[in-house]
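Protein modeling request. Please complete all fields; requests missing the sequence field cannot be processed.
Requester role: graduate student
Desired output: 3D structure, token encoding
Chains: 1
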Amino acid sequence: MLEAAQEIEREQQAALEAAPIEQTYQEALAVYVQAKFAQVEHIEDRLENLIDRQQARLQQAQAGKPSFLARPGTRQAWQSQQVQQQARLQVLHTRLEVVREIKEGMGIHAPKVEELATRKMRAERPELASDWDAMREAQRRHQALMRKQEQERKQAQEQRLGRSQSLGLSRTV
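Delivered output (173 residues):
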């Protein structure tokens, strides 16, 4: 019983210490998420601009199509350039899709941007991540202990109730 009381006291102390850790962690994460979201938007804007320029180049190259009477080497070089320009445009579109998927997509536990921000913050601030993990583990242990104590209390109450009912039955006989 004394050991359980000491464990509860330790858990409560950890909870008091956890408040600043949780606040610090959440504030830091919010900064990282905001920075990551700004980065994704910047990349998205840049890719859209590159796509616009690439489409303009492609249209310009199509306007310079060699005539039917042009030399075969000229026509072949133009076609090769067209293929390269179209391939580059396709690569840019694919990259833009990936960036938008990151921006709008969901990961396993949270939006992808938030998962990337969390990963970056944990890499750059390992001491905060370690404190956060320790606090979360202490909370889980505390919750498990509270559930166990509640279960034991219910069992003890059921046993007392069962004994009093069995005593009541034996008296009526």
